[in-house]
Amino acid sequence: MSRLWTCLSVAAFLLFAGVANAEERWQTLPEPAPMPKADESGFAPVNGIQMFYAVYGKGEPVLLIHGGLGHADIWSSQVAELAKTRKVIVADSRGHGRSTRTEEPFGYDLMASDYIALLDHLKIDKTALVGWSDGGIIGIDLAMNHPDRLTRVFAQAANVTTDGVDPGVLTNKTFAAYIERSGRDYKKLSKTPDQYDAFVGQISKMWETQPNWNTDQLAKITTPIAIVTGDHDEAIKREHTDAMAKTIPGATEVILPNASHFAMLQAPDEYNKAVLEFLDAR
């Protein structure tokens, strides 16, 4: 992933130096809408870090987990819709956004345990989970290791082995724009605004080798799960997504049309509809 970071940084420079803007919806990176006002927010002490969280609405809980380098505010359109009928919990993963980090190596098991500790802090026994990219990977990790804490998992743009990542992402303009925006947001939100490069270097070490789950591990998942991708996902190979859906027992595969890795921003109404249909399925 260190090579990925370098290539995307170069692509970001070229993009903002005058490369033509994307025209198709799946090539865009819309800004998230402002977050609604939270009913509760704060910092939970979990695994040696201070983890930012916010809670919206009432009803059956659903936890939204953002992707790598991002933060909870990317879910604004989903929070606004889901909180009409549910208790929605968002958080910044360790080192991301407003949450702090330690020198402990990043790992999906560790990040999953952070979210278990957050649920304990909020006194939530079981929840549905919507995860994007790294958030989807964390959801799969939880489904394998903590199925008693989950009701359903909607895993979008996730991979289960490192070779599921499309090497074309190295020069993708939309991803370059996301990297640039993430750095800007980090400086605005983080308690350590001058440490973005150090944070990226730390999490990149995880991306070099994780996730790395085998088919036997995936075949043991019993939590109802949707494996979701945009039909133009720039980062995850389509054949990898298809294989995931075939391997996990009872998994539902959902393909979001005219959307990419950033489907929740590009097509929020369609995204929300897909999430609600899955959460409401019986």
Automatic annotation (TrEMBL):
InterPro entries listed in its UniProt record: AB_hydrolase_1, AB_hydrolase_fold
Residues that span the membrane, as ranges: none
Leader peptide range in chain numbering: 1-22
A Pfam cross-reference name: Abhydrolase_6
GO function term, MF aspect, one: hydrolase activity
Highest taxon in the source lineage: Bacteria
Residues covered by the AB hydrolase-1 domain: 62-273
Key words, A-Z: Hydrolase, Signal
Listed PANTHER family: VALACYCLOVIR HYDROLASE
Protein name: Alpha/beta hydrolase
Lineage, broadest ranks: Bacteria, Pseudomonadati, Pseudomonadota, Alphaproteobacteria, Hyphomicrobiales
